[in-house]
Amino acid sequence: MKRIIYNITSGNPRSLIKPSVSSLLDGFCKIVPAAIILEIFNVIFRHFQTGEPLDSGRMWLVAGVLIIWMLIQYIAYAWAYDSTYYVAYDASARGRRNLAERLRRLPLGFFGSRDPGDITTMMLGDYTLVETAISHHFPQFISGLALPLLAFVCLLFVNWQMALAMFISLPVSVLIIYLTNSFQVRLSHAHIKAKVDAASRLQEYLLGMREIKAHNLSGTRFERLRLSFHRLMKESIKIEGLMGPIMMSAIGLMRAGLTLLILTGAYLMAAGSLTLPVFLVFVLLGTRVFEPLQVVMVNYAEIKYAMVSAARIMEIQRQPLQYGTDDAPQGNRIEFDNVTFAYEKKNVLKNVSFTIEPCTITALVGPSGSGKSTITRLIARFWDVQGGAIRLDGKDIREIEPEKLLSRISMVFQDVYLFKDTVGNNIRVGKINATHEEIVEAAKKACCHDFITALPMGYDTPVGEGGCTLSGGEKQRVSIARALLKDAPIVLLDEATASLDPENETNVQRAINALVANKTVITIAHRLKTVRGADKIIVLDNGSVSEIGRHDNLVSGDGLYRQLWTLQQQSAGWRMKAV
User: Fold this and answer.
1) Distance of CA 519 to the CA centre of its chain
2) What average pLDDT does this structure show over 368-384?
3) Paired sense of beta strands 544-549 and 409-412, if any
4) Residues 229 and 361 both lie in one domain
5) Tens digit of pLDDT for each residue in 422-432?
6) Structural domain range at position 74
7) Looking at the predicted structure, is the pLDDT value of residue 574 above 70?
8) Exposure string (b/e) for 334-368, b if CB count within 10 Å is 16 or more?
9) CA distance 344 to 132
10) 547 belongs to a structural domain
11) What does the radius of gyration of the chain's CA atoms come to, in whole angstroms?
12) Torsions phi, psi of 385, nearest 5?
């Protein structure tokens, strides 16, 4: 139970104390009227038994107490409602924020190993289940379990035979639930896994809509999506169809205690050892006690299901973060010392060593898959190396606090992502507290001020998700404006002009020239003519350094760089023609 509580609160079990206590108080307030009604039964029974006049004064007194208690019960219910739901929604909101912060600090390798819909399902679906468990299931479970037990203890002093008759079937019901516990957990795991897979396939389907249309793949022919929803349907039917009868059997067996209670009461009254008022109170309490016990059984099943979702959340919380406590050094000298790195089991870099001097331009070239992009991402510490070390001004970057390391690095990649916000706020990502004047100045240097002012609302014009309302060249220049605004001393460029038309390429190249002035620049190049003026060119081949030098020295040699240069020079004269 302790593990369940810990998981269901995402590691914060204290958050359940207040809603549980308030729910317990609310439940207690609902039981007390039965004791008050017992006094009414006694007054009426005494009137009929002895023939004495009805004690109307006492009846009015009891009625007054009952009205006052109803007001107390309302106050207790209102407090329980407010405290329970406030705690639940606040815990859920804080949990989602904490999870988002945790995800931000995880290495990118974690995301590469997950299905695309897994994180989305966790943030939305799993936390919704946890939220419901905290707000509804767990407090009701505590009060629904504690109050019947309290009632059982109290009723033992009234009439132990009737108390035992009422609760004698309960242990058998609990045993049924306990014996099917592992079975329910397996069904819950399978159902949640099916939900995650369906969400991933749906996201994959939507993101790949362009390719689906281009290849005439209709929804019915997208087999992976269809199969994932079919599996979800089967798992949903299975968990309801198998667990439903089990729960109903346990509940039906438990409620059989009310029938046994009535039979026992009739027998004891016939024997003269039980009075009618006491029998009526037991029947009244029986109808009230079995309702919370039924809720307990149903909520226990819901809690077990939510526990599976909570365990998934806790799995993220246990993922190792990238640690580092030191400040970033002021120097910008970057050194790779026998660096080895692999994505899971695929080796990408093998014993790579080179040095990048401050305020120089270093180009990374080589065939696709040779490790160029991996090197830039390792410098930014998106992943940690498995062998060797990367040093910034002599300090291993694994010893530097990740955020302080990233504060010294600006990145412009080929694939640009813009948030669904205004153009100005997308540029402000580079410096959150930037003024409007600073944003405009960065936009001018990035050659995007003119097209921004031509937009309907200028810098306040919203862009679509991912920047879909802007062209590729416009998005690229906005990303450069971000980097200019950040003004970090180290700049990483991943072929920022590779997929642009000549006009946009010229504008972007001018923006890049403004960005890299007096900076330490590491650029990835596929078109070798763009890096002829680089201070150093590092040629990579199959994860290893093949050559290092300047353009003139490398092109006059007999290595891979000369082969790539010759091929590009030849392909420059190619023309398409009809055959």
Assistant:
1) 37
2) 86
3) unpaired
4) no
5) 888 988 888 88
6) 2-317
7) no
8) bbbbebebbeeeeebbbebebebeeeebbbbbbbe
9) 37
10) yes
11) 35
12) -70, 150
